[in-house]
């Protein structure tokens, strides 16, 4: 995902677009930093996302930029 270089510099993020989005879909890509890092896209309905965001224990384990 980050290997394509068109003269504009290395990509900052991966975006998968608006198609094929459904509740519960998780997409993973190799991370920008390399070395085993991952970019994760999670598609959830708003009520589920709100519950996840309010879970302090889970949030303490995630590194979110």
From TrEMBL:
It comes from the Eukaryota. InterPro entries: CAT-like_dom_sf, Sec_Metabolite_Acyltrans. Gene3D superfamilies: Chloramphenicol acetyltransferase-like domain (3.30.559.10). Coiled coil: none annotated. GO terms for molecular function: transferase activity. Keywords: Transferase. This is Transferase.
